[in-house]
Design brief:
By secondary structure, the chain is an alpha/beta fold. The strands form two sheets. A seven-stranded parallel beta sheet has the order 3-4-2-1-7-8-9, with helices on both faces. A two-stranded antiparallel ribbon has the order 5-6. It is globular.
Length: 191
């Protein structure tokens, strides 16, 4: 199995608590970019960036169109835009219709990441109250990438992990600390 070149994470309801357990321990020289769709209200623009910049060793930023995801950085989708990764591996934004009542949509990010990164994409589904992300994770796995699903029994909102489990029965279902351990075992950059 190929070493991941990108990690994409989908999360919504209960996401603040889940991400606070997952992101702060990732090292500054983490060798791959992390891109997150967190369903947030448009009025929350900037809050997640400031909050996680104060907690994380990695740099945290809002994804901007035209830039390429860089190792050692965590990117959040901006509120009210779908975030995509184009085939040449740069970000783009869309105001297309909502998917599963959400914009940004986890499915949209995951499907575009699968298209851009194929087998070198790692998708992670965390707590959420609807099924956005299940189809996207399935797309990543079909492209040869890897997936992980938060154990629904520990998720604040188990609907999305359960939907992902149903769509992707081969993906490991793990508690957050095991997901974090898996990420920490990805080789670090030598910078």
């Amino acid at each position: 199995m190929k070493k991941p070149e990108i990690v994409v994470i989908g999360v919504s309801a209960g996401g603040m608590q889940a991400l606070q357990k997952l992101l702060p321990d990732l090292p500054q020289n983490f060798s791959i970019p992390v891109v997150i769709v967190q369903h947030v209200h448009a009025s929350q623009s900037g809050y997640y960036i400031q909050h996680f910049n104060s907690l994380c060793k990695m740099a945290v930023a809002e994804a901007e169109p035209g830039i390429s995801p860089q190792p050692g950085c965590i990117y959040f989708a901006p509120p009210n835009y779908h975030l995509l990764i184009e085939p040449d591996r740069h970000f783009s934004l869309s105001i297309d219709q909502r998917v599963h009542y959400a914009r940004p949509s986890i499915d949209v990010l995951f499907m575009s990441a699968a298209d851009a990164y194929d087998a070198s994409c790692l998708g992670i589904i965390l707590t959420e109250a609807n099924s956005d992300g299940a189809e996207g994770l399935e797309t990543i796995l079909k492209a040869g990438g890897r997936g992980m699903i938060q154990d629904p029994r520990e998720a604040d909102f188990p609907a999305m992990p359960l939907a992902a489990q149903k769509a992707c029965p081969a993906a490991p279902v793990l508690p957050l600390h095991k997901i974090k351990d898996t990420l920490l075992h990805i080789p670090r950059s030598k910078k």
